[in-house]
Amino acid sequence: MVMPLLDAVDVGPLGGVRLGPDVICDGFRRDCTVRVQTHVHADHLHDFETSKGYQEIITSPGSYDLLVTAKNADLPYRRNFAAVPFGKSIRFGSSTITLLPTNHILGAAQVQVVVDDGRRLGYSGDFQWPMDSVISCDCLVLDSTHGSPRYQRQYRQDQVDSQLQELLLRQLRFGPVALRGHTGLLQRAITLLCGQASVPVFASDRTIKEYRVYEAHGYPPQELSAFPATTRFPGVGLVLLRMHERPPAFIDSNFTRITLSQYISDPREPLLRFSDKDFRVAMSDHAEFAGILEYVSAVAPKLVLTDNSRGGHAVELAREISVRLGIPAVPSTFSLNREWGG
């Protein structure tokens, strides 16, 4: 039974995940009729424009709204781009697809595919643990970002939030702060300041629009202002920057710089201090090693394919799952071919 399951799934060179004959997640493949977009982080958006021209695209309502904000204006009018609520099943070809949330960022989804021949296939997507519900599948393609025993935190997420809140409030007493992070982490950080600080908060037009989407999906309201058109910052305030966004000209040596990291760099301490005005906070939105194993146990697949296209720990994670959980697990391999666009 293991080999037929393994033949049904694949991970491409850019991280696209094939689930059966019809479905590709976060990538483009010529022989798949539908793309499931699990979330909006850039490393999962490869070939999105190609998919728009050749495939049906489905995603969760939160990801739909974020993609409309981030991408070009034609998305709301495309007949092949649709939002599917979590828990609702939709059928394409011989596959029935169901999305469930992952607690990674707004809209991030696990993907469950049931093929007419009875095969049950799944993709974890990027995920944080714990979560309210998990997919049911026989073969699970698994994110391997923190797939090593080295990534076992000795602190809780609420302690990270508390330290970040304390750091922001303290540094804002002495001057302006530039806070840099990926989508999801920035929005979580904003909520820590709601009602706690009376300083103005500035952001790019895109970041402001993204936070309005988060508000529409239940996040607390926050007043945000566009970057001031000046080379000198007007006093105290918080400036929000996307991870790879070019900083405005007014950010100078008076600013404290805080970077929100997606990854666990020191399992003993989430806050790294480089100087009095330069910090990094491990505000990870990926499950740590123990959480990955708990997730796999909850899904209870017959076979696990660890994603070897990102993270660098797929081989180690496959070995640990096999030894610790007794579930057959192998890392993904790939080769360029016509279906993957090679």
Automatic annotation (TrEMBL):
Domain Metallo-beta-lactamase: 36-150
Pfam families found in the cross-reference section: Lactamase_B_2
UniProt keyword terms in alphabetical order: Exonuclease, Hydrolase, Nuclease
Protein name, per record: Metallo-beta-lactamase domain-containing protein
Gene Ontology biological process: double-strand break repair via nonhomologous end joining; interstrand cross-link repair
A GO molecular-function descriptor: 5'-3' DNA exonuclease activity
Keyword Hydrolase belongs to the record: yes
Matches recorded under PANTHER family: DNA CROSS-LINK REPAIR PROTEIN PSO2/SNM1-RELATED, PROTEIN ARTEMIS
